[in-house]
Every structure is written in structure tokens, then in C-alpha cells.
Amino acid sequence: MHPQATILVVDDAPENLRVMTSVLKDHYKVKVATSGERALAVAGGAERPDLILLDVVMPGMDGYEVCERLKADPDTAEIPVIFVTSRDDEEDEEHGLAAGAIDYIVKPIRPSIVQARVRNHIELKRSRDLLQRLTTVDHLTGIHNRRRFDEYLDIEWRRAARDRDPVALIAIDIDHFKAYNDHYGHPRGDECLVAVARTLFDVAARPTDLVARCGGEEFACVLPATDIESALELAERMLARVRALDLPHAASPLQGRVSVSMGVAAAVPQAGSSPEGLIELADKALYEAKASGRNRVIGWRGDAR
Questions:
Q1: Which residues are catalytic, by number?
Q2: How far is the C-alpha of 97 from the C-alpha of 81, rounded, in Å?
Q3: Spatial distance between the Cα atoms of 188 and 202, rounded to a whole number of angstroms
Q4: Rounded to whole angstroms, what are the CA distances from 216 to 145, 174, 197?
Q5: Looking at the predicted structure, is the pLDDT value of residue 117 above 90?
Q6: Phi, psi angle pair for 155, to nearest 5°
Q7: Whole-angstrom Cα distance, residue 269 to residue 251?
Q8: Are 145 and 136 in contact (CB under 8 A)?
Q9: Under a CB-based contact definition with an 8 Å cutoff, are residues 285 and 300 in contact?
Q10: pLDDT for the residue numbered 148
Q11: Which residue, 73, 72, 71, 97, is CA-closest to 85?
Q12: 63-105 pLDDT, tens per residue?
């Protein structure tokens, strides 16, 4: 069974909010906002709505501007928007669809029509979300894949450039993993990958942290709003937790146990730059960690930790 979907209803008229809430409350969790500014705050909050029903004519920021801002923000761009308005001419509807809305409901509303359209769009969103998960999740380990890593790092890099925040990156390799596969076989190798992936995921506990498998025995962790010192501390915790798994690795010269090497880098992005430089720094630090004996963390400044 699907969890109950959340609908955000935006209208400056309290009576309209009451009517719409009464139509939807038996099937959905309903949130309300009486202004465009409040709508943006709710939509971008910790519990994002699954669908937004948005009035067009409001004092201050009108519905068209709200919709355009929602679509311009990566955090809210995928939330479907239905305009609900008394404006019913073709030009208004065209304007609303051009702003990014997926549907247009004309007031006075008909409850059965509102319920049907909301139900259809919620189902479409669930199908789209499922497809998105299937294309961005590594099927073996259950964590994110390289595609999602690239997308997320790009999004957070641009956000950090705007907010002048640091972004940190941890590049991670399982030490001597080919030798592990050769010695124990690929099924045991897959079990090892799953165990390490889950451990890394558990340590990166913030909702904004993203751990991904980038290929083979290679992992990476994106840490928004994180400086180099905090990133190094987190990497050390990851290293310790992998060691604590105490997985045998008879083909490894490193105490005969599974271990990882990590390279850490952090930077405050400049406007218009790309995260490629950060990736190169993390890879350089990872290379140094391997060259200096593996089973350790090294920061982008070259200091072993």
C-alpha cells in the first residue's frame, strides 16, 4: 500500500481553502498556504508535497510566479502543479501551462472532477518516482548509482556557489578487491560490496549526504555544506566502521581483513564553475592513500589522517 500522499493547497481566500480541504482530506494529507511566499517555503521544506493546487490571482506574488520559481529550484522542480482559478480563457490556460503546470482546473470547482484529476496526477507521479528510483539506484547494493552521484553533485555544487557554502567529497575504494574476488569468488565479492555500502550509508547519516557506488569497488560520498575538517572526521568514522565489520580477506596484506582507502576534498564553488576540480582533488587524495599503504584517509591537502 502506498503511503498517504501530501497535497499543498495555495489560495489567499480562507473559504476556498476550506472547500478544497473538505474535498481532499479523506484521501490525502492536506497542507495549506495563503500566499506565494508561504507556498514556496512549505514546498521546499523537509516534507515536500506530492502535488500542489495553486491559485493564480493572489496579492503580491501571483500563481504564475510561484510556479516558475518552483520549477527553477531543483528541490521542487519535480512537484506537479495544478492551477485552480476562475480565469477560464485560452490565453490564461496557455500561460499557466507555459509556466510549468500540468493541469488547469476552473472555479467553481466540481468535487468529483478535482478528486479524479488529483488521483490521476498522484498515480502518474508515483510511477515517475518509481522509474527515477530504478534508474538512479545501484541494484546490487541498494545505494545510489553513478548517474545519481553526478546529478546530485552538480545540483549541490550550484547551490553551494549561490550560498557560498563548502562542498566536500569522499572518494572510496575497497582495498585489493580484485584479489578478494579471485580468492573467494564473485558471490562472496557481492556480499562484501553490499556490507561495505550499507556501512558507508549508515555513517553518512544526514539526509543531505549522498553515498553512491560509482563502479566496481568504487564508492563516493557527497557532503553539502561541509568543510574539509568535518569531512575528514566523517571519513575516519567510515574507515573505523568498515574495519569493525572484521570481514576476512586472506588475499590482502593488510591484517587479512577487508579495508578501504579514502581521499577527501572540499571547496567553496565559484559561480559558473564545475565540480570536476573537486573530483580530481578527491581522486588525487585517494591515489595518495593507496600509494602510502592503503587502509587510511588522506585529505586534499596531502595530510594523512
A1: 217
A2: 9
A3: 21
A4: 11, 9, 12
A5: yes
A6: -60, -50
A7: 41
A8: yes
A9: yes
A10: 94
A11: 97
A12: 999 999 999 988 899 999 999 988 767 777 788 788 889 998 8
Q: Per the structure block, which three cell numbers stand in for 240?
A: 573505523
The CA dihedral of 195, 3, 30, 42, to the nearest 10 degrees, is 10
Domains of the chain: 6-136 (3.40.50.2300), 146-299 (3.30.70.270)
Sorted by sequence, the CB contacts under 8 Å of residue 145 that are 6+ apart come out as 136, 137, 138, 212, 213, 214
Contact criterion met (CB below 8 Å) for 152 and 210: yes
Segment 173-231, tens digit of pLDDT: 999 999 999 999 999 999 999 999 999 999 998 989 999 999 999 999 999 999 999 99
Q: Which amino acid is at 32?
A: V
What is the amino acid identity at position 229?
Answer: E
Q: Rounded to the nearest 10 degrees, how much is the dihedral formed by the CA atoms of 75, 80, 83, 89?
A: 120
**What is the pairing mode between strands 210-215 and 218-224?**
antiparallel
Q: What does DSSP say about strands 103-106 and 81-85: parallel, antiparallel, or unpaired?
A: parallel
Interval 226-250: pLDDT, tens: 999 999 999 999 999 999 999 999 9
Which residues have C-beta within 8 Å of that of residue 234, sequence separation ≥ 6?
A: 170, 203, 204, 221, 223, 226
Collect all residues with Cβ–Cβ distance below 8 Å to 122 and sequence separation of at least 6: 5, 28, 50, 51
Q: What is the pTM of this model?
A: 0.69
Contacts of 174 (CB under 8 A, 6+ apart): 180, 192, 193, 196, 217, 258, 259, 260
